[in-house]
Amino acid sequence: MSQYYPQETVRNYNMRSAPQLTPKGHNEATCLEYGLLKVPYEMLNRKFRTTIKRLGKPMIAINNLSNSIESAIPRSNQPLPIAKINDKYRGLTKKVEEFASSFQDSIEAEIEIAKVLESRAEYLNKGVNGDEQDIDYFRRQRVCRLLVDHLLRIGYFETAQKLVDYTAIEPYTNQEVFQVAKQVEESLKRQDLSICLQWIADNRSKLHRLNSIFETEVHVQYAVELVKQEKRKEALEYAQKYLQNLGMKEWKGNVLTLMTVIGAGPFPGDTYRKLLSDDRWTELIEMFRAENARIFNISTLSPFSACLQLGICAHKTPYCTENENSRCIVCKELFDFSLGLPYAHINVSRLICPYNGEVIDESNVPMMLPNGQVYGENSIHELKRGDEIYDPNSDQHFALRDVKRVYIL
Ligand SMILES: [Zn+2]
């Protein structure tokens, strides 16, 4: 999906004017909790912009009515055209009342989102800077929050909801964003573009700022569907209406392919076949997911997935192979997930006792049985039966005096 991402712009923040905040546990909170604050912030930002747009039209109407009342008042000592002014004044009062009600609704909606943002900031602050109990609770909840976030991203909405209900973490999940995404994805799966086009209309200014090509691709698909129904004339009209504002540089790829298909009908060749194939719907769903993530500034790789990969890397060694009897978590259960991931860089090997899983070191020295099996000294105490020692690995018994201390150089 990298082709849909323009080069990330580097933002220069003036750090000198920023307050010096150095929270404890800064690293994990800033890495993993970005979406917790970023999503409500983006929602507030969007609400603020739509409010300005929504209030703009009635403002213009109020200004026009005020001006027309002013111009209806005669300058000289002539009598006032009371009936005329009365009508205009009534119209003005109505518009002002509408404006006030719309203003109140918008402000209330903004305050509601601001409160969500505030409560999340408090929650995060408590989880990072609070007492031991708060931090422990926050960390246990975080696993569930990350899991819910991952489930929502991959479209497992019902499973995510069950986990949210079970753990009571609803105020700290971004379900609303993903619920809308669910509706769009489901409509795309049904090969219906209406909900997707509505989503584009709601997010057009943000998509435009991100230099997104998603809207163009959706219009191309709409025209392609018309071609498939043998409605090439309608497809041409649609393309003329919705693609006419494209810049010269945007006349490439699927847009050009569409023009050929409209002109000549289904054409031989992979490029044309690809555009007309049903796989395009899957491609649109993937593009939509990426754009939705970009709009809310959330990374495409979920924090849960990043944590899981990091954990697997920490355990993975060059000697790992698939083996269900192994005590290594990668060999035993996670080998398929570990494919393609790098190994952890470990300078000093650690020896783990195969019996009780304790580290073998100077306080738990390694001891070897006559058959070559090595255990930590603590396990030897647990496994001895009188003068004998029992080896659970080979199911054999040996004389205790034959157990030798092993020295590692
Ligand atoms: Zn392994």
UniProtKB/TrEMBL annotation:
Q: Name one GO molecular function term.
A: zinc ion binding
Q: CTLH domain: from which residue to which, for each copy?
A: 177-234
Q: Which domain of life is it from?
A: Eukaryota
Q: Decide whether keyword Flavoprotein is in the record.
A: no
- What biological-process terms (Gene Ontology) are attached? erythrocyte maturation; proteasome-mediated ubiquitin-dependent protein catabolic process
CDD domains in the cross-refs: RING-Ubox_Emp (cd16659)
User: Where does the record place the RING-Gid-type domain?
Assistant: 353-394
Record-level GO cellular component terms? cytoplasm; GID complex; nuclear matrix
Keyword set includes Transcription: no
One Pfam family it belongs to: CTLH
Which UniProt keywords are present, listed alphabetically?
A: Cytoplasm, Erythrocyte maturation, Metal-binding, Zinc, Zinc-finger
Instruction: Indicate where this protein resides in the cell.
Output: Cytoplasm; Nucleus matrix
Zinc finger (RING-Gid-type) positions are 353-394
Q: What is this protein called?
A: E3 ubiquitin-protein transferase MAEA
Organism of origin? Panagrolaimus superbus
Q: What is the lineage of its organism?
A: Eukaryota, Metazoa, Ecdysozoa, Nematoda, Chromadorea
